[in-house]
Design the sequence.
């Protein structure tokens, strides 16, 4: 087991985590930006107002993209366990 192999495996793991979390992060960012623009135009500076729409957006994105996220994680795990003989030998 070489260091290049371990670094490649860690890179694949980080890429998989970023790919799986991207839909929730992007929708949370878009909703947060939209709420911030509304707060700036109406001059309502309530700090807790931004949290509820973001939480709802993240939960909806989790429901919408949940099967795709699960499929991505299962594919990574399958490839990891399928190539387990490379780790041991």
Sequence:
């Amino acid at each position: 087991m070489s260091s290049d192999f371990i670094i490649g495996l860690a890179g694949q793991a980080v890429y998989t985590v970023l790919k799986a979390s991207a839909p929730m992060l992007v929708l949370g960012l878009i909703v947060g930006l939209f709420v911030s623009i509304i707060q700036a135009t109406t001059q309502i500076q309530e700090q807790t107002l931004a949290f509820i729409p973001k939480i709802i957006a993240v939960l909806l994105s989790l429901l919408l993209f949940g099967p795709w996220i699960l499929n991505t994680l299962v594919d990574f795990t399958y490839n990891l366990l399928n190539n387990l003989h490379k780790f041991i030998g």
